[in-house]
Amino acid sequence: MKKLALIVMLLTLHFATAQESTTKLTVTESEEYKDKVKANDILSIHTTESGLTGIVRNSKRDILFDIFDANLKKVFNEVVESDKKETFVGELFYDNEIKFFTVYAPKKTERIVYCHIFDIAAKTHKKVKLFETT
């Protein structure tokens, strides 16, 4: 019985001290902004060492590129049209670039893979065709 009381007391002490620890999480809320194109999904987010945050979002027929500064003010916005049959498959971050990959299926037997390169520091976007197969 003493062992059970000791275990219960140690568990109670453990949970009581676990609640006392504080986290160093800081939350920052940006100003509200209105988009011209409504986005469905956030595909990718990357923050550079200089404090710029690049966001790639998806809507029904467009891909949206946004850049925010360290104070969460929108610095850059670009809307690129995409086809309804173009789907997002993955992303990669490197240095100041977000590279994300899409597959376009114009026909049931044809596939085209594209790499979108979004350079956050230079505020540019380019679309590169990687390969095409049937």
Topology:
Layout lengths: L1 H19 L20 E7 L5 E6 L3 E7 L5 E8 L4 E9 L2 E11 L2 E10 L4 E10 L1
Antiparallel strand pairs: 1-2, 2-3, 3-4, 5-6, 6-7, 7-8
Q: How would you describe the overall organization of this protein?
A:
The chain has 134 residues and is mostly beta strands. Helices cover 14% and strands 51% of the residues. It has 1 helix and 8 strands. Strands 1-2-3-4 form a 4-stranded antiparallel sheet, with no helix packed on it. The protein has a 4-stranded antiparallel sheet with strand order 5-6-7-8, with no helix packed on it. Strand 5 and strand 6 (97-107) form a beta hairpin. The mean pLDDT is 85.
Quick description:
With 134 residues, the chain is mainly β. It has one helix spanning 2-20, and strands at residues 41-47, 53-58, 62-68, 74-81, 86-94, 97-107, 110-119, 124-133.
